# Entry
Amino acid sequence: MPQPIALVTGASRGIGRAIALELARNGFDVAANDISQGADLQKLVQDIDAMGQNALALPFDVTDLGTHGPALARIEETLGQLSTLVNNAGVGVMERGDPLDVSEASFDRCMAVNAKAQFFLCQAVARRFLAQPNDQEHPRCIVNVTSSNATAVAVPRSEYCASKAAAAMASKCFAARLGHAGIAVYDVQPGLIETPMTAPVIGSYKARAEDGLCLFPWVGQPEDVATVVVSLATGRLPYTTGHVISVDGGMLVPRF
Ligand code: NAP
# Structure
């Protein structure tokens, strides 16, 4: 049987890298995307090769919608038919601050990467999935990595919150559109995860987790998110779609 094939965006580092490695550990061939063909992307491809899986470095800017079709065609030519899209690439705000002071540039950047690119990559993959015969050997799914901030307000990062809320709704829309074909779409919402993105604030995140912000008094690791994503991609949550999967140590459990 051919190996299942996944595309992971923003895979050079952090959560994306952990997801790519965990997919490979579970028998996936992986197309690893990042915005540039840097040393980190090369290293990831080597690490996946060393695990005995095929890996393809696929640098492109997810906000350049014209690159989506050629990138998906390259995966099909090189690895085979895609079974899983993990829309992970994301950016934070340019500067934390008052919503009254958010710049148009930071708003547009958050929306372009976190919401618009994610939406249109879902669309491009969904069209290909639906054009394929409905007799795939591997479960087909789309996993959108959004954020707890799709739900929970962070006032100094309002444009990020707005972009993640848009992406969360898009996940539900695609789940509703693709359900008839048995294609699952999930919205994975990480909470406080220790990655390069959160490095500047990780000290305060750890203190807040210990102080009770999360039910587990610690921050998460990229591997926690990766394990959850691979459980979804391998169909270990059968008969589920369209739902939010929070990987946040219980941060958003309502309390009083
Ligand atoms: P990260 O360490 O900053 O990694 C994000 C990756 O995405 C980087 O390799 C980045 O490449 C890449 N990327 C950015 N813009 C891109 C573009 N236009 N095209 C292709 N790749 C692009 O972030 P992370 O913490 O692992 O976060 C991964 C995802 O989880 C993001 O969507 C983030 O919003 C979400 N998330 C993270 C946390 C957390 O606590 N860490 C919490 C909730 C949600 P460059 O660096 O080269 O630009």
Summary: Strands lie at 5-8, 29-32, 55-57, 84-87, 141-145, 184-190, 244-247. Residues 9-10, 12-16, 33-36, 61-63, 88-91, 113, 145, 147, 190, 192-193, 195-198 surround NAP (CB under 6 Å).
